[in-house]
Amino acid sequence: MTRSAAIDKAAQYFDDGSFIRDLERRVAYKTESQVPESHPYLKTYLQEEIGPTLERMGYRVSILDNPVKGGGPFLVGERMEDAKLPTVLTYGHGDVIRGQEGSWREGLTPWKIVKEGERYYGRGTADNKAQHSINLTALDTVIKVRGKLGFNSRFMVDTSEEIGSPGLHEFCAQHRNLLEADLLIGSDGPRLTPERPTIYMGTRGALNFDMSVDFRAGGHHSGNWGGLLANPGVILAHAIASIIDAKGKVLVRDIVPDHVPNSIRSALADCTIDGGPEGPKIDEWWGEPGLTGAEKCFAWNTFEVLAMVTGNPDRPVNAVPPKASAHCQIRFTVDKDWKTFLPTLRRHLDAKGFPMVKLSQSRQDVMAATRLDPDHPYAQWAARSTEATTGKKPALLPNLGGSLPNDCFADILGMPTIWVPHSYASCSQHAPNEHVLAPLLREGLQIMTGMFWDMGEAPPKR
Predict the structure, then answer these.
(1) Where in the chain do CATH 3.40.630.10 domains reside?
(2) Mean of per-residue pLDDT scores for the chain
(3) Residues 6+ apart with CB under 8 A from 175
(4) How far is CA 102 from CA 97, 114, 429, in A?
(5) Which helix (H) or strand (E) holds 239?
(6) Got the DSSP string for 131-163?
């Protein structure tokens, strides 16, 4: 049997409806890690769906408790064919965000697949059940066609990714032997454009923090006290304006990279961001001057105000508000150490006359940044495999614009990381009406079958 036969078999699995039937079963599990009442479904999903699937493929399956309270269990499947062969770790997450029942448009529900044209709607279709299902099917296809993988495989499913993967760092540190591999191949996130296969080798990090001004116990009549009492909303707005200007350029230069490395700039030269017909129109004038859109998103640090409040916006009254707060975020690349960001902002605000603005990290867990150079042999191997399958040159991104717990694999376990996404930017993955596109599912099955076939036939040099 041949590579092309395996790829054709994977495509047929989609064409005859088998893949969608698998996905329908998996979407039906209400694996909402953000909803405590749904936590029992996290283990059930592993026990009833993923575990038996891997066991039928010849894997030895372990379901292990999370070392951190509040985190969901982990599944690790092992198929070890020969100690001399390379080992690949594949990661996916079985949890989803809250279903948001009642907010989906008429005719749609989060826990049932609904097909409309080329779209399959349902919670988890894009994030992440379809994506790890593609990888499961591709591995199974290679086993059936070749009779073996030709490499060792470990398959890991996290059930707390949507709440920041609590316990994943500790789990990786405690179970190094169980997770040891030469390479991680995972799938999550969107393609650069719906039509173009995409490979990314890391993620930007994310630091969430609060800026706040708290002057007094309550509001005071603006007619009697306006002009006499400092307005915290005005002060906070000016403090933020000292960090980022009206066109999105970050003014505190110590929290952005010194430059974009040449290898990164070269890799991004042919990359154009496009969310599809329903995606937002990019504001070309916003962000760091002199950078392309791809460089702004994948090679630079951004400062965002995610929410801001002073007074009572729903029922404003004629009073000087007592306090104001903003929830902010810095998305960052590996070029800067995130631990310096808040101290840097503290010094900046003090120097600009805003000592009254408090800074506090709002989440204990910080998603760290990771990056694999686009010239790395494993990245080039994955790109060649993808192009051989699709006839398309894939977009090769040094890191995703968003964040994943990729540092667990890159830093704690010390392995190169390759991510091949099977969704697109306008899939509504954290909103009502989440969906995935049929052409991406079918092509994803082909890409991953080809990649796993190549790993067994012509792996990258270890």
Answers:
(1) 3-203+370-457
(2) 96
(3) 64, 76
(4) 15, 16, 16
(5) helix 232-241
(6) HHHHHHHHHHHHHHHHSS-SSEEEEEEES-GGG
Domain with CATH 3.30.70.360 in the chain: 205-257+301-361
CATH: 3.30.70.360, 3.10.450.50, 2.40.30.10, 3.30.750.24. Which one for 205-257+301-361?
3.30.70.360
Print burial letters for 279-315: b (CB count within 10 Å at least 16), e (below 16): eeeeeeeebbeeebbbbbbbbbbbbeeeebebbeeee
Helix axes 438-457, 129-146, angle to 10 degrees: 40
- What CA–CA distance (Å, rounded) separates 126 from 188? 8
Per-residue pLDDT band for 158 (boundaries 50, 70, 90) equals very high
Q: What is the pTM of this model?
A: 0.91
Q: Helix, strand, or coil here: 407? A: helix
Residues 6+ apart with CB under 8 A from 45: 26, 29, 31, 94, 159
The yes-or-no verdict on residue 381 having pLDDT over 80 is yes
Residue range 3-203+370-457 in CATH 3.40.630.10 = yes
DSSP for residue 321: -
Taking alpha carbons only, the member of 96, 162, 161, 164 closest to residue 126 is 96
